[in-house]
Specification:
QueA-like; 2 domains; alpha+beta; 18 strands; nine-stranded mixed β-sheet; Thrombin, subunit H; about 15% helix
Length: about 350
């Protein structure tokens, strides 16, 4: 994994979103010829063609960060990761996970200090950090009254407008982190691309926190990636087939959309795709043979992360690391609120 490490100055980690979503910069990477072009994200349409298909992840971030108080008075936090089939039950990261006991019920503090507290019960513990929890009915019904949008650990500045960590087209709630490549799009920009003949389609993948977990194993394939729930509708499958028939390119907006599309191919035949809904734990590393995605829009990713491995598999590791070095030299903004790349 040392081949996928790089040094990043702290000041290049974007702490806040730009005032205008589409004002981010765009680095265009030609994976065939190796050329790198610098542009603005608002110029995306000049690199796309009629009959191209943009596939976006429409998952919405849930207010998953809950402040808790134990009966002893100690404070902590639950970070909801994903639901389990039973009503009101979730898998969550718990802090202080080592101290919380199976069977313990904790108070959940509301955002409004004058409102009533809710509760959560620790049903089981998978390890000292991860717990299976049961939320009280009022808490599960109205998470927004209790929870905050969880930001990645490298963002230390308060987010004043939580909607800036949501895409403009987000709908089904379920993610613990935003599909950040989509944060650059505005409704006006999507309309302009449509008028240009670029089609859009949507998939859903509810993003977990595995995105931020570095690969600690030296051999990437030994890393275990968590599963995430995803869904591709018949309408999106039809748009992919039409795009292919017309000679267009399927361009995934974000690594989550890309993983979903490649999962779709894994569950059928690349030439005969069918709608799919279910878990995916696909782990894409250099050497992977891409079956659906022809282009990728994605932000700059953390060193030694699964997402950097995935992007390096779509181009080449040498090209991606060269592009990252050039991005640092040109003072691009990195990570969730940072600038974007278009790899074609």
């Amino acid at each position: 994994m040392s081949d996928f490490d790089y040094e990043l100055p702290d000041e290049l980690i974007a702490q806040t979103p730009l005032p205008d979503r589409a004002s981010s910069r765009l680095m265009v990477i030609n994976r065939t010829g190796g050329e790198i072009t610098h542009a603005g994200f608002s110029e995306l349409g000049s690199f796309l063609r009629p009959d191209d298909l943009l596939v976006l992840n429409d998952s919405r971030v849930i207010p998953a960060r809950l402040k808790i108080q134990r009966t002893s008075g100690g404070r902590g936090e639950l970070l909801l990761l994903h639901r389990v089939p039973s009503d009101g039950e979730w898998i969550a990261l718990a802090r202080p996970g080592r101290k919380l006991q199976i069977g313990e019920t904790v108070h959940v503090l509301p955002l409004d200090a004058n409102a009533e507290m809710a509760s959560a019960t620790i049903l089981d513990k998978q390890d000292n950090a991860t717990a299976h929890v049961q939320l009280s009915e009022e808490l599960d019904r109205d998470l927004a009254a209790f929870g905050l949008v969880p930001l990645p650990p490298y963002i230390t500045t308060e987010l004043h407008d939580p909607e800036r960590y949501q895409t403009v087209y987000s709908h089904p709630a379920g993610s613990a982190a935003a599909p950040t490549a989509g944060l650059h799009f505005t409704n006006d920009m999507l309309s302009a691309l449509d008028q240009q003949g670029v089609t859009t389609a949507y998939v859903t993948l509810h993003v977990g926190l595995d995105s931020f977990r570095p690969v600690s194993e030296e051999v990437a394939e030994e890393h275990e990636i968590h599963s995430e729930w995803c869904s591709v509708s018949p309408a999106t499958v039809e748009k992919i087939q039409v795009c292919r028939k017309n000679g267009g390119r399927v361009i995934a907006v974000g690594t989550t959309s890309a993983r979903t599309l490649e999962t779709l191919a894994k569950h059928g035949e690349s030439a005969n795709l069918a709608a799919f809904s279910g878990p995916t734990n696909i782990f894409i590393t250099p050497g992977y043979e891409w079956m659906v995605v022809n282009g990728l829009i994605t932000n700059f990713h953390l060193p030694k992360s699964t997402l950097l491995l995935m992007v390096s598999s779509f181009a080449s590791p040498d090209l991606i690391l060269r592009a990252y070095r050039e991005a640092i030299d040109h003072r691009y903004r990195f990570f969730s609120f940072g600038d974007a790349t278009l790899i074609l």
